[in-house]
Amino acid sequence: MESVNDSYLTIDGEAEAIYKQLSSKFLAYAYHVTSEEQIRQLLDALRKRYYDATHHCYAYRLGHDGALFRANDDGEPSSTAGRPILGQLLSNELTDCLIVVVRYFGGTKLGVPGLIQAYKESAAAVIAQSKIVSRTVDITVEVAFSYVSMNDIMRIVKDMQPRIAEQRFDNLCTMRLAIRSSQADELIARLSKVEGAAVEPINE
């Protein structure tokens, strides 16, 4: 059977760290994010909070596979800031995560290698302060069944232990179940074998 990669790493909540190199100060922030709109709001808030900073550089990855990503140098020499930050997200296999590094220039130029090192270390420092968690990629399934089939359905639910998102028991009963994607086919197959049960995957 082909293995399904149905889990991914992200951070829980947010974290911050400070990194200093020569006379420049780098304030690093990490956030758990799930949308570009959320990212825009966080960036706007940091720009207002640190309105006098020299640069607000960042990188993010979104989606369980990290397919949506971006790196921004915010005026630093090309690829010296956003890309090293993104590199830390990639090497730690983190997604649904935004890292912003706010720089206060201290008067001494760091040069390209120095900048790359500083932004890389800043991102690494804030990741080290973050709580990394594993999340699963879930499929939601809705099953409708008659009351007489209740025991058969509940036996499968007890056995496979999907998360029960919704349930309604009446003459016609419905349950909405969430289960990690690698187990979804088996759950659907088993539920479908119950007499009178109608099973439908839900796109959420």
Task: Point out poorly predicted stretches.
Answer: none
State the helix count. 5
Taking the sheet with the most strands, its summary is: 5 strands, antiparallel
Mean pLDDT: 92
CATH homologous superfamily grouping of the largest domain: Impact, N-terminal domain
Distance between the termini: 26 Å
**CATH architectural label of the largest domain:** 2-Layer Sandwich
CATH domain fold name of the largest domain: Ribosomal Protein S5, domain 2
Query: Which class do the helix and strand fractions yield?
Result: alpha+beta
Order of helices and strands: EEEHEEHEHEEHEEHE
CATH class category name of the largest domain: Alpha Beta
Task: Describe what this molecule looks like in 3D.
This protein is of the alpha+beta class and 204 residues long. It folds into 2 domains: 7-135, Impact, N-terminal domain (Ribosomal Protein S5, domain 2, 2-Layer Sandwich); 137-202, ACT-like. Chain A, domain 2 (Alpha-Beta Plaits). Helix content is 32%, strand content 39%. It is built from 5 helices and 11 strands; from the N terminus they run E-E-E-H-E-E-H-E-H-E-E-H-E-E-H-E. It has helices at residues 36-49, 82-91, 111-128, 150-160, 181-192, and strands spanning 7-12, 14-21, 24-32, 55-62, 68-72, 97-104, 131-136, 138-146, 163-168, 172-180, 198-202. It has a 5-stranded antiparallel sheet with strand order 2-3-6-4-5, sandwiched between helices. It has a 4-stranded antiparallel sheet with strand order 9-10-8-11. Strand 4 and strand 5 (68-72) form a beta hairpin. Helix 2 (82-91) crosses helix 3. The two termini are 26 Å apart.
